[in-house]
Amino acid sequence: xxxxxxxxxxxxxxxxxxxxxFKSTPEGAREFIVPCRLQPGLFYALPQSPxxxxxxxxxxxxxxxxxxxxxxxxxxxxxxxxxxxxQIDIEMSFVDREDIYxxxxxxxxxxxxxxxxxxxxxxxxxxxxxxxxxxxxTDKPDTRFGLELVDLTDEFRGSNFRVFSNAxxxxxxxxxxxxxxxxxxxxxxxxxMTEMARAGGLKGLAYIKxxxxxxxxxxxKFLSETEKQALQQKLNIEEGDLxxxxxxxxxxxxxxxxxxxxxxxxxxxxLGKLRIPDRYDFCWIEDFPLLSYDKENQRWYSTHHPFTxxxxxxxxxxxxxxxxxxxxxxxxxxxxxxxxGGSIRIHQxxxxxxxxxxxxxxxxxxxxxxxxxxxxxFKYGAPPHGGIALGFDRLCAIxxxxxxxxxxxxxxxxxKGTCLMTDSPSTVSPKxxxxxxxxxxxxxxx
Length: 446
Description:
Number of strands: 17
Order of helices and strands: HEEEHEEHEHEHEHEEHEHEEEEEHHEHH
Structural class: alpha+beta
Shape: globular
Helix content: 25-40%
Largest sheet: 8 strands, mixed
CATH class of the largest domain: Alpha Beta
Distance between the termini: 46 Å
CATH architecture of the largest domain: 2-Layer Sandwich
Number of domains: 2
Radius of gyration: 25 Å
């Protein structure tokens, strides 16, 4: 915290606290709601981030803002999640992505030098979202080892193996990884990978083992000699290899093989056949899709948040091909862990209004109710601006070489969101509820 504050002050930033009692804006994670006693029936929400406040600070002329912000999300807890957490929150005016990258690379280099005594190389590599998915099967890649995905879509277009050719005909892809030296995998481990594939949306998991100079697989009888030669050439197949396939929609195939890649690396490490270097591999992931389509509700949603600016040359596609629009969003990733993310923001009120009403299909009345103050502020001239937020607790956990942020938080909550020391959350008195005009109705246990 001290290293962060000293660095930011050296760079000319002003530390500003933003309100903890905020307005409910039900997009993204669930919010913690706080009833207002003085105005019955009205509620505050605890902020998930200071996003809107810091953008308005840019309009107000504060061109370099930061704070160690407390944030709150009412979501299911995992090893890297707590209902309340801290982030290093930053916003700057008149910047582009490279300015943000340079600032954060300098900050992380300073922290690593002062805390661990380690010099880290800058600038960090930049990887486009689509490249990260195609190579590693995730937008949070651990780049310290290979086992990269290989595309075999063209090789299996029109194949007699219908599982592959039908996927390609439906607009999908065929991808594979070569887990070198893992042909010794047990049947139980194959079943675990197959279950992983099914959980990710595949119907099953095709594989080939190479043992005693022979390819072994239930799918071999469906493959032509030309296809086998293509596999040999593209995957560099050798004795002891295990080839794992995924055929489905692009995103599904990539994500499934991404999870299997990590599992395979774990098995190979246990067998002593893969050594993952004990080093810090940072990278930037950029050019994310601006929008994601929800088939169930038949509408577009912001992939990150609705204030992210589209890549300028993609703006004309907003009304014609929304799925092709890239956002100016970026994530900073270290060894497969997302440290934080940010974006260049929309600063034109007309474009922000178009995103809200014509792309996200938020009714004009609801837009005014939820975001009217931002659109009004933007009318007075918002500078081009952008920012980022880094997970402070996660950063501390990595520096302390622990898997859980609970280990670096004083008084952490349990997986059920309980504070074991104070026994909270707890009931409140009937008098307090009456003052708030609240009646509690607990659903019956099933």
